[in-house]
Amino acid sequence: MDRRTFVAAMAALASGSTVLGENPNIGEKANIGENPNPLHISTNTYPWGTFYSREGKAFVVHSDEALAAIASSGLTGYEPGVGNPGELQGLGPKLKRHGLLMRSIYVNSTLHEKMEAQKSIDLVVAIGQKAAELGTRIIVTNPSPAGNKGDAELIRQAESLNQLGTRLKTLGISLAYHNHDVELRHGAREFHHMLTATDPDCVKFCLDAHWVFRGCGNSQVALFDALSHYADRVVEIHLRQSEKGIWTEAFSSTGDIDYDRLSGFLKKKGIRPHLVLEQAVEGGTPKTINAVEAHKKGVAGVNRLFGWMA
Fold first, then answer.
1. What's the pTM value of the predicted model, to 2 decimals?
2. Domain range spanning residue 89?
3. Is 73:11 a contact under the CB 8 Å cutoff?
């Protein structure tokens, strides 16, 4: 299941459950000081869904069971995929109960189609208004990663990103553009246009190192070139590792991507992005540990690599 389908499925599950309580602005109030890990490390919900799916189980976002599992792995941050504002109702007390912060969320968008762009922008802003009450400061979006968009569509999408980023900025939220592998096709025209035709003050960058790596034919040269070009806009990094092109169960510095080099680059530049584990599993990934065990190992790996940020 791809992320867009996963977010839609989780939205359906969330809308079918009853949640009570208000949405207090928890901000920094979660008890992350009790966690022995020196860094604030978040997780996207997508990888948890892939782990649970291979066990034949359902991962229900925002549920106490899901949040408890995430917290038990040593993570202190939660980045859910959100499909509508109502999904966030009652989430604040749950986050606080499990000692988690929600500094970022992931929201799908369709910004290249004239009839859909404005509706999509309005929806993301409505979600942002609710998320801001919970301490969210970054909204990550990957605009409709499907098909080969033409020039007119790319221009409209970039204009829409600017409009969305401008509106979110008034809420104290940074919009972070995110890509998968498809945006790197045809000379990476979509990827580069989104980061050259948009206003750096309104549209930031969520670097998913592995999607850039994979989208460019498993090329670290392309990854570090992209990082060199757009490093100043990076506000968040999605962390995933692979071996011989296949996602590993747990994140570490050992594998296809030289994360020691990536960390060193950021340190030299003085860039401290929001760190989000997104170590999902796919066909061919070894099956030796469960989601909690994998994320515990991932947390240890992130602390070793990026501990200087603390």
1. 0.88
2. 3-309
3. no
